[in-house]
Amino acid sequence: MAPRESYDILVIGGGVNGTGTARDCAMRGLATALVEKRDVASGASGANSGMIHGGIRYLPADPQVTRLSCIDSGYIQKIAPHLLFRIPFIFPMRRKGPRPSLVEKAYLYGAEVVFSMYDDYQPFKRGKPSSRLSAEETRALEPGIRPDIVGAVTTDEWGIDPQRLCVANALSARAHGADVFLHARVVGFVRASDGRVLGAEVEQDGRRFVLRARVVLNASGPWSPRVAALAGVTVKLRPGKGVHLTLDRRISNYGVICTAVDGRQIFVYPHEQSSIIGTTDDDYYGDPDHIPITRDEVEYLFQGIESIFPSIRRARVVRAWAGVRPTLWKYGRTEDALSREHALIDHADHGAPGLYSLVGGKLASYRVMAEETTDVLSRALHRFARCRTHEEPLPGGEGVPDVAELAAEHRFPEWTVSRCVYRHGKLADRILAAAHDEPWLRSMLCPCEQVTYAEAVWCLREELVRTLSDLRRRCRLGMGPCQGADCAGAAAQLLARERRLSPGETERELRVFLAERWSGQRPVLAGESMGQQEITRALYRETP
Amino acid sequence: MLEKREILGWVTFGGRALVVHPLQVAFRGRPGVDRFRENFLPEGLVPTSAADRRLLRGASRCTSCHLCDAAGASPALPSLVPLVFARSSLDLVHARPALAALAARPEVLEEGERLCPSGVPLRLLADWLVDRLAKVDAAAGGGAP
Amino acid sequence: MTRVLVVGGGVAGLTAALAAREAGAEVAIVSRGPGASALVSGAVEVAPGGGPPVEAARALADRLPGHPYARLRDRLGELPGALSLLRRSLSPHLSEEGGRFVTPLGGVRPAALAQVSQAAGAIRAGERIAVAGFRHHPGLSASERIAERLAGEGIAASSVTLDWLDRVERLGWTIFELARLLDDPAEAARLGESIRRAKPQADRVLLPAFVGIERPEQSLKLVSEAAGVACGERLAGLPTLPGLRLRRAMDRALGAPELHPVAGEVVELRDGHARVDRESGEEELRFDVAVLASGKYVGGGIRCGRSFVEPLGGLPVHDGQGELNGRAPERLLADAPCGPCPAFEAGVRIDGSSRPLDATGAPVAWLRAAGAVLAGSDFAADGAGLGLAAFTGYLAGRSAAAGRG
């Protein structure tokens, strides 16, 4: 793609902050470019808990934050109804003795009151109100929870596919005229003699070019200190590493809130067709491009879950994954409620006018952050258009089509259509319809996640895919129980066919993809996964 | 140091805990397990018993080799049972046609089990999924299972 | 007469049972299925590198001192006998000769034997090859890329697209359904005609491994006749039709009453006794010598939870170097997904008479071990596939028949 002569705004970073802000800017008529050194959602935005929660943890101290979080969760549901799924959460309270102590009972009562306060805001996001359960009732609903509990309270949150959310934002930005450059790395800034930032020098496919912009936004998450350093300014983070584990299936339809050895709350919860255990939170000043996962971190998670859900070790863990939260160095005490977790830094004061850094934030409030950021940037550009990101649906979010009808119309199995509709919403109709003209699209590429060739080809052609891992982020290819054993080879052939790769390039793509899958399996490999891996290794042994 | 807003939050909490919540409980009753069931079960979010989870562990033995599919006919392939259907009860309603097709030809799963290198209990799993789907249906119809 | 109990119904177990029987023992074989033996490409590989099997195995033993071939180096001369026994017992499933075969990813792999329909697809010097694909079956249509890769290795290869599968009702069919279709002679002829129509510029056409389940050699003959050009199959990935064929051939071989096949799972193994879990209930079997041919992780011969366990004999688990338990888990898994990796070499050590070694390093007189359960064997890294299973099974069976000690 040839860059334009000049943009109003250049956004650096393809995470949820970057894509969300690029979308808002583009929708407000600003000439927008987005540049990302890897792929959309390949950093922290793809490695979080995957929830659009309503901020219950701000209660009772800061109900206004909870209120705004819930309202925005409702907006996200409105613009991407297909991508959200309900996760009921159970918060059991352990007891130490044979009978619950007064303190334990009081603690559970306190939780009950907090959860009931949260109920006041649930209607904003179509959430269900809380319940208080006795120990027996808790175990009737979730027998995996150990018997020595006082009781439990429950609440309701929404899960989301974070990769799809970012992709949808990037595609929407593009549809509104933004230019999106993926696998394009910022290597430096273009400066005026007075230090003003005039744009960025970008390297893509070994080629360098300049993206000029009136305003540059550094939204590169854990990489933002490095990007800022290219302009000679400082962004200070306190990066926190978060490790999650993925189980091969839903071991329960309910999330369970557990307490880790250090008193932190960690969860095991259903997510799409899998379960997730998460998360750790440790300071991490290492390389955000290569985040190591240790057996100790995995053990920490297991032990924490085990304290409430003893049978957890018998489940099949398919992988571990890690992200780095770009947490602010220090929360501002005076800022308004929501901005406590993020900050927009104007580097004019640091000798780099025209450059802003958006740091911190969380997935659930990405939209309102993007809105606030775009407000500031628009003001700097003297452009004043109203934000519409909470009204206009993301691509595919215009409605959720009926699965059975689509299946009948396009002659695909219902269970296949269901996953396609989840990932693509209304666009599933177009994706599946293509198979009428190209019958080969009916074949199954990834059985675990029910990715048809139709869906994969759509992603390859329409969704800015370059590598197999990009494709994985679009449609969950290779993210199921077999972790790519089934589909990696065929997917590499498909990629080669669509992108006309040489045999050498195809092999390289496959090797990189398998290595990426392996890096997540390695820290948790045991049990049934050993047999799976024995097969995978044999299948791909010529791809060393 | 607490800010004014936070102090207000905790004061509100105190009021809720000492006055409002007890009154709500006294007059409206304490929302318990029934509310949980009404909230979530009709959407397919049914509980998973210990016996259910034992079966799920059987499904987890599947290594995606698809040898069992040699016994079946597309699109209702035996491998769908451990690999897709036994992963989430939310999508079970969409598995209905396949579960019916597999139930109509019990010899398919029997032969599939014989072919399985890792001992996935395909028949038990398929029967269980039919039961689970019935529970999902019952819950969706309003009656608690 | 020595009573030999074989635990495991894969290729190692089958060969052990046959060899023990041939040597005059009374045999029983307990099998809950073929394990990883069912997941084969269709080739019987002895070692990478090609050439005569014994030489290739010896070269592998030189390279990997912890490999079972190295442990059994003095016996490598018996390898051809082992392969021959396997071939005869599965007849007419395997070819008489090996060669170099084309993999689904377009690689070339030497093997000592192959399934008959695949042997017809061996690469022959001076021949031009056409790799066949099918437009509407993306899983079977990677022909251009396979041909490109072969050409890159100096083989005269082109690709050809066939219209045989263009009929709409066959869309999305599994490889098994297509193979079943080709058991019908009329359909095999139709496939051949589609090859003729495509006019391949080649001396040999390579099809996917799907030309019939029941009588692949006959189906392939029909295809070739109708095509007017020699045809053969490539090796398979997953799902594997050759795996299904091997399974059927093994079922036939294991059905021989003199092998006393028992469908079930050995749940306890002690000197002289085995407890077997069968569909009809538990059963106790008595024996003089048992052969452990229980596979690795797929077969269940080795388990890895928090530690590595050999569940039946309670034997210590080693890789090619030494004991695995006690080493840091991070060091057991390599940085790359394929290639050498201690955790996948996990297994039991044996002495030169196939007797597994206990924790003190002493051989267990009443046991023998064969196949993937052997320490130092890692099919994905060493390329010693069913050849290793047949060889070690053969030796273990004969050693078992000779009695304890």
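qc> The mean pLDDT of chain B is 92.
qc> done
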